[in-house]
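Summary for the steering committee. One of the milestones for this cycle was to obtain a three-dimensional model of the protein with zinc ion bound, which we needed before selecting residues for the alanine scan. The sequence and ligand used are listed below.
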Amino acid sequence: MVNNSLEMLGFDQARLDEADPSIPPECVPLRVTQVQKESYFVTDGSGDVYAEVTGRLLYGAAEAVDLPVTGDWVMGQVVDSSLAIIHKVLPRSSFLRRKTAGKKTDYQPIASNIDTALLVQAMDEDFSVRRLERYLVMVREGQIEPVILLSKSDLQKPENVAEYAESARSVSGAARVLAFSNETGEGFDGVKKLLVPSKTYCLLGSSGVGKSTLLNRLAGEELMETKEIRESDSKGRHTTTSRSLKILDNGIIMIDTPGMRELGNIGAGTGIEETFGEIHELEGLCKYSDCTHQHEDDCSILAAVESGDIADDRFESYLKMQRESAHNERSFLEKKKRDKSLGKLYKSVQKANRKNKGN
Ligand SMILES: Nc1nc2c(ncn2[C@@H]2O[C@H](COP(=O)(O)OP(=O)(O)OP(=O)(O)O)[C@@H](O)[C@H]2O)c(=O)[nH]1
Ligand SMILES: [Mg+2]
Ligand SMILES: [Zn+2]
């Protein structure tokens, strides 16, 4: 691997603005390239080093998102060529996370400090504009720019490729849509042209769409394992099993991820508003300011659905995500409130204990 400077790895001095006296002076900025349970790999640009977090960081972390994730910049001490100790996670400029399965409003971190997310969908049964919308919302909520890459163009006739691209464009908003093939190299130059050295890209999409194959093609070598997915065991089998950050020789930084089976949504509205821009724009025109756009008179959105300006299934998808988002927002606030009152309880017990001891 080439010896990159921190700037080439995407480091920005502004991340260090707040000097932290609790960090030992021998700590240097390092970038997390891989996370496996409680062990980590970090790099200063000259290769991956195994790393662990300090007990203070580990036990001080209230939630998974407080611990290092792939893509993070951390302050760490490089002990020797086989061990580094992570003391602190530096502020993130962007953060990709999803709600974990089940009722609990916990978030699973995916990766951080990403400039652009590459949403890969294959032009076969995998293709779904509804899922695309979900990815777009998730990525935009994380303050990340999305680009849509449609893979396996070699499996389709040119006119079908154009059709797939057209469907994707119908929901993409400002995001670019490119079709390509890892097999024939068609459209590959267009993908390459998108990528800028020292920027961080993250590959997202279902298992088997060709994320790792694309990464290998860009790298010009087999950095990642790729596998044919057989019909019989295509369910839930991921070839890539952990998120890993790779620095390509041309300076492009790429995070590969395992295919996701479930996409959650989080509370913040910006991702939904941006992804459903044409619907959001109409909201202000409804007669009632608290219009739910389901049965009210003079609802501008229902009118647009009726006239066909907004497709039924897109409107359904919008309502579904709005409901989910509202639900997540509520449980998130409730959880915060619970945590806060628990915190107060602990404090008052501690205080009482101290008082008793004093007597
Ligand atoms: N026909 C065709 N096959 C492709 C293309 N890209 C990838 N494949 C094949 O699809 C299979 C899966 O590719 P991977 O790159 O492993 O898929 P992945 O998205 O990384 O999957 P996970 O790691 O499980 O998330 C492999 O057999 C690839 O050779 C393509 O553009 N066209
Ligand atoms: Mg893979
Ligand atoms: Zn309305």
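Key point for the committee: The chain has three domains: 13-89, 95-229+236-256, 270-339.
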